[in-house]
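> tool_call: predict_assembly(chains=two)
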Amino acid sequence: MTPLEMLEVAYEEARKGLAEGGIPIGAALFSADGVLLGSGHNRRVQQGDPSLHAETDAFRAAGRQRDYRSTIMVTTLSPCWYCSGLVRQFNIGAVLIGESKTFTGGHDWLAEHGVDVTLLDDERCVAMMTDFIAENPALWNEDIGVADT
Amino acid sequence: MTPLEMLEVAYEEARKGLAEGGIPIGAALFSADGVLLGSGHNRRVQQGDPSLHAETDAFRAAGRQRDYRSTIMVTTLSPCWYCSGLVRQFNIGAVLIGESKTFTGGHDWLAEHGVDVTLLDDERCVAMMTDFIAENPALWNEDIGVADT
């Protein structure tokens, strides 16, 4: 699979989340040879569960794996610290990111620690989050831990 | 509540996990005035879910919160990068840790980023993990992303 084909899986997850009334961030975990191990999307709204970011949902969907070093985490948006920590702890080898214009998490930190980070500048991903944040600023801030002052 | 009383809640969660055949790590999220918001334990084995570390399970149990700055995450063991990332992203103000002898995660990094970190040296927590790791090395390595070489 090409990077864009892998991103498409994450993007479709984000679209599912949006259609459900949720925060439109999607992710997918692939093996080195392009087999989809699991995919998911942010479910804060849908399940009232703040622990389910897109990447953690995809990680959960992939079930127990013994070795993540050759896997690729694909996400529509730069992974927050929570999801970056997941990648680092489990030694996920590569991260493919749709965009980091609307939010920048810990992907530079991951690159410093040896993760193969690829940052795309996917216009659909940017547009999806730009629109969502403009329409739902409080919900977005809740999802990234930004409190009202 | 005193730190030891708060740790007791996390320790009892870890004991529950052990009784279920799981990895004995427990956690609890408290408000500044000592109200228990949520508690949980590692459920990798019980639910086949690698995303449920003790801290993320407690965070999930606390449900959606608008502001974590005054909350305290109590955990029997030094939080791994995944759980440290959770604390940083959501601006959880304080972390109280039972021990870091059997595993050291990202608590120094959290302290550098302004989190109020208290590290105890609780003998019961140390003994519980020491025994568990000795008896289940492969399972423990799986939980912290250490692959067979």
